[in-house]
Amino acid sequence: MQKNQQQNNSATDRAKKRKAGFQNRVIAFFSAMVVGFTLLYLRIGLLGQSGGLLQAAQQQRRYTLTVSESRKAIYDCNNLPLTDTYSELVYAILPLAENQIAVLDSVPSSRREEVETLLSNGKPFLLYGAGELEAPGIVRFDVPVRTAVPQLAAHIVGYLDDAGSGVCGIEKNYDEFLRENSSQTQIVYQLDALGHGIAGIEPEIREGGGSSAGVVLTIDAEIQRVVEEIGSRMLQKGAIVVMDPYTGEIRASASFPGYTLDTLADAIQDEENTPMINRAFLPYSVGSTFKVVTASAALEQGLSIQETYECVGQIDVSGQIIRCHKRSGHGEMDMTDALMKSCNPYFINLGLQVGGSSLLQMAVRFGFGEALPFCTGLSAEAGTLPPESEMINPAAVANLSFGQGKLSATPVQICRMMAAACNGGLLVTPRLVLGTTRDGKTVAEDAAVPAQQILSEEISAQLQSMLIQCVMVEPDQKALPTLVTAGGKTATAQTGRFDEEGEEYEHGWFSGFFPAETPEYVVTVLSEDSGFGGETAAPVFAAVADAIASIQS
Predict the structure, then answer these.
(1) Domain boundary among 44, 59, 74
(2) What residue numbers bound the domain in which 9 lies?
(3) Which among 14, 264, 368, 465 is most buried, taking Cβ atoms within 10 Å?
């Protein structure tokens, strides 16, 4: 009995100990939970006071619209901008009940559905192409337009893609420099939890700093403008190049037809007129403008400008009959008469006397067959010359003598040739880029290539005199300006391509200079596939010369 009582007491003690241990564990767990939650609470409080998290939270409630991004300018030779020449209205819209009607009324009916969707989303947006607009929640910006419509010197300047990168022209080839240190104009809104703009909180406007830095071209905007106006009126396809005969600086370069940014898709697909190509930098069959080179080679070999030859309307070259454009013949004439009348048999006879090798070497000295780089990635093509091996063939020499056969050149190259004929015999290197500027005023000029003396001053003076007579003396010259004297040469170049009726396509050319005795400009006109240069290209030269003379009077 006593033993059982002792066993019961022992069991009770064990039970009490177990209960006490459990209670202690519960108390310890509860205490740990309290401590843990207290620490967590304190941590959350500390985090809540963190400036970094507060900034992050604010950033999540901000919404930024980039209104515009600056890019360095492209200037003409007088530091006049060729890009960003006008502005367009851009509105930053915070959708509000008070401005929806005004916004919708500012856009054409064709765009209302699109704008209604933007308004219903409640998120701020940019509105382009709207009329005058004034209402609550609307901020107006005058944003420079990079590429004008139409853009002056479009084939030279180029344009940008949707990402703001240059696609062609100077925009592409100076893209890295033009993008350097660009800045943005932005507007920053506060949004609510639903991502909608909050009325009553003024947005933050961050103005991008403008820059006067840029690329400076040799183009003269005023001359370029008149050249483009005349060419678009008088040429269906072709090119006009205006150059300083002493420096090679290109004052205007235009290709026709042109293109505009708003019709870019159509222009790219237009395979018939190919408005995207720059015809001023592409090679074409040359024709009689090359007679300047043939005359130069003859004069250098000691032949006189009084050298006579009787044109009977054709010439036999090793059994091949080559006809003059005047089938009845020009009769006896000297070099000046032959250049004025553009007599092919005379110059074929002259070329055969000079010899094929000497004639080809003179062409090379004038820069034919040489590409003309203006900057990295932008150049006028080299054109073609017949190989030296063919110059033992009298027919090949005959063809080259009057600018036919395996000869092609760009309008820029023809300008270069004409410059040497009237500037004392100097072969200049055509330039399109003067250099760069940091302030829009002073130019860090690229190094110019020194001119080469390829003809004596005496021979150049003789060429200049003959070319003046081609314009000022030859009757019924459509190249003759009314406001200034001039010299120059027409050409009608065969192409070897024929229309559906079997008529050969021919390029019309005129290259000349003015004023006659003291040339300031050389102008070359190409009228592609249009026929006689005297009818198609010469009048364009006269119009350009008069327009430039008017500008400078």
Answers:
(1) 59
(2) 2-59
(3) 368
- What φ, ψ does residue 351 adopt, rounded to 5°? -65, -40
- pLDDT for 195: 85
At 528, the amino acid letter reads E
Q: How confident is the model at residue 146 (pLDDT cuts 50, 70, 90)?
A: very high
pLDDT at res. 501: 87
Which residues lie closer than 8 Å to 137 by C-beta, 6 or more apart? 93, 94, 95, 96, 98, 99, 197, 199
DSSP category for residue 189:
E
Answer yes or no: do 519 and 407 share one domain.
yes
Distance (Å, whole) CA 388 – CA 360: 7
Query: What is d(CA 245, CA 229) in angstroms, rounded to the nearest whole number?
Result: 23
Burial of residue 498 (number of CB atoms within 10 Å: 0-12, 13-18, 19+): exposed
215 contacts 74 by C-beta, under 8 angstroms:
yes
Q: Which residue has the tokens 């995207």?
A: 276
Kindly state the tokens that stand for 347: 């110059």
Contact status, residue 517 vs residue 540, Cβ threshold 8 Å? no
Instruction: For residues 8 and 81, state if they share a domain.
Output: no
Query: Minimum mean pLDDT among 190-199, 259-268, 280-289: which range?
Result: 190-199
